[in-house]
Specification:
The complex is a heterodimer. Chain A is mostly helical. Chain A is built from 14 helices and no strands. In chain A, helix 4 packs antiparallel against helix 5. The longest helix of chain A has 21 residues. The two termini of chain A are 39 Å apart. In chain A, 43% of the residues are buried. Chain B folds into three domains: 112 residues, Lipocalin (Beta Barrel), CATH 2.40.128; 111 residues, Lipocalin (Beta Barrel), CATH 2.40.128; 112 residues. Helices cover 16% and strands 41% of the residues of chain B. In chain B, strands 1, 2, 3, 4, 5, 9, 10 and 11 form an eight-stranded antiparallel beta sheet that branches. Chain B has an eight-stranded antiparallel beta barrel with strand order 12-13-14-15-16-17-18-19. Chain B has a four-stranded antiparallel beta sheet with strand order 21-20-22-23, with helices on one face. Classes of the chains: A mainly alpha, B alpha+beta. Chains A and B meet through helix 1, helix 2, helix 3 and helix 5 of A and strand 1, strand 4, strand 8, helix 4 and strand 22 of B.
C-alpha cells in the first residue's frame, strides 16, 4: 500500500545516500550495501520497517485479528481491493480507527467523501468536536476533505473549529502555521482576501522559518486584491527563500496538504 | 552383559553424551575459515545472489570482500562474547541470529543471508573461460550461449525466452567462479549468477552454488558465428531488485504526480460510456535504457471491488504510458540513473472522465 511505500522511503533515504557517495565506485557501493544488510541482520526482530513487505504481511496474518492489527496489515498490502477491505474491517472492530482510516482515504487514496464519512464517524464517537488523536484536530482534516470537494464555505467553517479549539486550549501562538494557510486558501477562494491576509500574517508569526508556502499564498491573495507589485514581491521572496531553504537543508515542499512546488512559484513569477 | 555392569555402562554412556554436548566445537570454532555468499533473502520472493566471501580467521581478524575484488574488503575483528553472541561487522549478533548447519551458515532474520563453507578447487580461470567462450552449454533448465565478446544469452529452455548479460570467470584463492552480470547495455550492474566451478571434464562443467548437488552444464556445440545475442522480451537492467534502491518502489513524488496528471489530462479523451467510474492503478518498470515493460492494471469500481473498465478507457491509459511518457519525467529526482524504476500510480475516473491522479 502507498502508506507503506512512504515509510519505505525513510529506510531508502538512509541506505541510498550510503550507496551513492561521489568518489565511490560501483564495487564500493555494492560492498557497502551488503555490509549494511549484514549489519541490519544483527537486529533481533524479523522486521525492520520499510523492508520485507511480504514477510511482514504474513506476520500480521498470524496475529489476532484486532482492529489495530488489521489496520497495520493493510499498510503492507499491495492489492488495493484487499487493503481497503482491511481498513473498513478495522473500523468495525475498533471504531477509534475511523480517524486514521479517514486520514488514509484523505492522503493516500484522495477519496474525500469516504474520508469525510470516517472522520465524521470518529467525531460522532468522541465527546468533543475538536478531539485530536493524531497530529491534527479532526475538524481540520474534515476541512481539508470539504476543500478538496470544492466546498470552501464548509471547509472554512471546519478549519475555524479546529483552529479555535486550539487557540482556546493553548493560545494562538501554539497553532500550527499550516492550519492558518489552509484557512487562508479557503477565505481566498471565497473572495475574503482581508481575512486571508490576517491568517497568513498569523501563519508567518507562528512559522519558525521563512516560508515560501506562506509567501506564495500571500502573492496569490495580492493578485486577488489587484495588487500586482505586492504579488510580484511576494513571489520573488518565495523563490528566494525556496532556494535558501534548500541550501539550509530544510525539507520542501513544506506541506503535503497545501502543496506548493518551485514550479508553482516560477509559474506565478512568469505572469 | 551382567546386571552388575549395566549401571556402569549406562553411567559411562551418559557421561560421554554429556561431554559431547558440552565439549563439541562451539559455533565460534566452527566458524573459523572462509565462507562464500549464497543468497540474501530480501523478502519472501526476492532472493539475490550474494557475491562475497567472508573470512573468520583464527587470529580474530574478520574480512568481508567482493568476489570480483572491485572494492577494498571491509576488515575488522571478530570475537565470541561471554553470552555466546558473536561480534563482527561492527555489530553484535545474538546466538540465535547465527545458525550453523553443516557447511551452511545463516545470519539474521531481517533479510537473512546464507553462506557456504568455501572449499578450494584449484582451477585456472583462463582454461575454464576458453571452454565457454563462443560455445553453447546447457543445464536442465537454462541454456548459456556464450558470445565471443563476453556477452551471454541465458535462454529459458521451457519458455524459450532469453535475456542478455555479460559472463566472466573470476579467480578466488586459485578457484574459479562463473559470474553472469549486467544487462544488454553493459557489464556494469548487479550479479545474476555466481557459481564456483568445481569440475571441468570432457563435455561437462560442474558448478557449485548452495546445494550439495552441483549444477551440471553439458556442451551443446559452438555458437553460430553470425548469431547476434538479443533479448526476446523486455529486460530490466537490474538482475535483482533487492540490490536496487528503487526496489521499494513505485513511489512517484508529488512533482512527478502533478506532471503525470497534466500529461494525462492533455492526452486522455473522455469515453462516453455509462458506468465508467472507479480507480485504475497502473504499474510498470521503466528500465535504465528508458524502455517500459509490461503494464499491469488493477481496475476497481467506486467501492474498490474488481471490475473491468471499457477497453477504450484502459487501452487509452496504457497507450499514454507507452507513447507519451517523456523520458525526463522520472529523471530529475533519480540519483541512480543506471537503475530501473518501478512506477505505480492510480487514476480516478468519474463517468469516463479523468478526475485525479495519486
Amino acid at each position: 500500500m502507498k502508506m507503506a511505500l512512504l515509510f519505505a522511503l525513510v529506510v531508502v533515504g538512509i541506505i541510498a545516500p550510503c550507496r551513492a557517495q561521489p568518489g565511490r565506485n560501483a564495487g564500493d557501493e555494492t560492498l557497502g550495501h551488503i555490509a549494511t544488510t549484514l549489519w541490519f541482520n544483527s537486529h533481533p526482530d524479523q522486521i525492520l520497517f520499510g523492508t520485507n513487505m511480504r514477510r511482514q504481511a504474513i506476520r500480521f496474518d498470524t496475529m489476532p485479528q484486532t482492529g489495530e492489527n488489521l489496520h497495520q496489515r493493510a499498510m503492507f498490502e499491495p492489492d488495493m481491493e484487499t487493503a481497503i477491505a482491511l481498513l473498513e474491517k478495522s473500523t468495525q472492530l475498533d471504531p477509534k480507527l475511523h480517524n486514521t482510516v479517514g486520514w488514509s482515504y484523505l492522503v493516500a487514496y484522495h477519496d474525500y467523501p469516504r474520508a469525510l464519512y470516517h472522520l465524521n464517524a470518529y467525531d460522532d464517537l468522541t465527546p468533543n468536536f475538536d478531539d485530536m488523536d493524531n497530529m491534527a484536530p479532526v475538524s481540520y482534516l474534515k476541512g481539508l476533505c470539504y476543500r478538496n470537494m470544492g466546498n470552501h464555505t464548509e471547509a472554512m467553517r471546519e478549519f475555524s473549529r479546529g483552529i479555535d479549539s486550539l487557540v482556546r486550549k493553548h493560545g494562538v501562538e501554539w497553532v500550527n502555521y499550516k492550519y492558518f494557510v489552509s484557512r487562508a486558501i479557503s477565505y481566498s477562494a471565497l473572495g475574503q482576501f482581508d481575512k486571508a491576509l490576517i491568517d497568513l500574517d498569523l501563519a508567518t508569526r507562528n512559522c519558525t522559518h521563512d516560508s515560501p508556502l506562506i509567501l506564495y499564498h500571500k502573492g496569490r491573495v495580492f493578485e486577488g486584491q489587484g495588487r500586482p507589485t505586492d504579488a510580484k514581491r511576494a513571489f520573488t521572496d518565495a523563490k528566494f527563500f525556496w532556494q535558501a531553504n534548500n541550501a539550509k537543508g530544510i525539507s520542501q515542499p513544506e506541506d503535503d496538504y497545501n502543496l506548493v512546488l518551485e514550479d508553482d512559484i516560477d509559474e506565478a513569477l512568469k505572469k | 552383559m551382567s546386571k552388575t555392569w549395566r549401571p556402569i555402562w549406562q553411567f559411562i554412556a551418559t557421561l560421554s553424551l554429556f561431554y559431547s554436548f558440552t565439549h563439541s566445537p562451539s559455533t565460534a570454532q566452527s566458524l573459523t575459515g572462509r565462507w562464500v555468499g549464497v543468497t540474501t533473502e530480501y523478502d519472501l520472493d526476492a532472493f539475490c545472489p550474494l557475491p562475497v566471501y567472508m573470512d573468520f580467521n583464527a587470529d580474530s581478524t574478520w574480512q568481508l570482500g567482493l568476489i570480483d575484488e572491485s572494492a577494498a574488503p571491509r576488515t575488522g575483528r571478530w570475537a565470541r562474547l561471554k553470552n555466546d553472541s558473536l561480534r563482527f561487522n561492527e555489530a553484535t549478533y545474538a546466538p540465535e541470529l547465527v545458525t550453523l548447519q553443516g557447511d551452511r551458515l545463516r545470519i539474521g532474520r531481517v533479510q537473512p543471508m546464507t553462506f557456504r563453507r568455501f572449499r578450494a578447487m584449484p582451477m585456472k580461470r583462463e582454461t575454464v573461460w576458453a571452454r565457454l567462450v563462443g560455445q553453447v552449454w546447457q543445464s536442465d533448465s537454462v541454456q548459456f550461449r556464450f558470445g565471443a565478446d563476453g556477452r551471454v544469452a541465458l535462454r529459458n529452455r521451457r519458455a524459450n525466452t532469453q535475456t542478455i548479460h555479460y559472463a566472466e570467470v573470476l579467480a578466488l584463492a586459485e578457484s574459479a567462479f562463473l559470474v553472469v552480470r549486467g544487462n544488454p547495455n553493459g557489464r556494469a550492474g548487479d550479479i545474476r549468477i555466481f557459481w564456483q566451478v568445481v569440475g571441468n571434464d570432457v563435455g561437462v562443467i560442474r558448478l557449485q552454488n548452495d546445494s550439495e548437488k552441483p549444477e551440471i552444464l553439458r556442451w551443446v556445440g559452438a555458437l553460430p558465428a553470425n548469431e547476434s545475442l538479443q533479448s526476446t522480451q523486455f529486460q530490466p537492467c537490474a538482475n535483482c531488485y533487492g540490490m536496487d534502491p528503487t526496489f521499494f518502489a513505485g513511489y512517484v513524488n508529488e512533482l512527478n504526480k502533478r506532471k503525470l496528471l497534466s500529461l494525462f489530462r492533455q492526452q486522455y479523451k473522455p469515453v462516453d460510456v455509462p458506468d465508467q467510474s472507479g480507480v485504475i492503478t497502473l504499474k510498470f518498470v521503466r528500465n535504465c535504457a528508458g524502455e517500459i515493460g509490461p503494464i499491469s492494471l488493477q481496475q476497481l469500481d467506486t467501492n474498490y471491488k474488481r471490475r473491468p473498465f471499457d477497453k477504450r478507457v484502459s487501452d487509452q491509459l496504457m497507450g499514454i504510458v507507452r507513447n507519451h511518457l517523456p523520458g525526463s519525467l522520472f529523471g530529475d529526482n533519480d540519483k541512480a540513473p543506471s537503475h530501473d524504476q518501478t512506477v505505480t500510480f492510480t487514476i480516478r475516473l468519474v463517468d469516463g472522465r479523468l478526475t485525479d491522479l495519486f
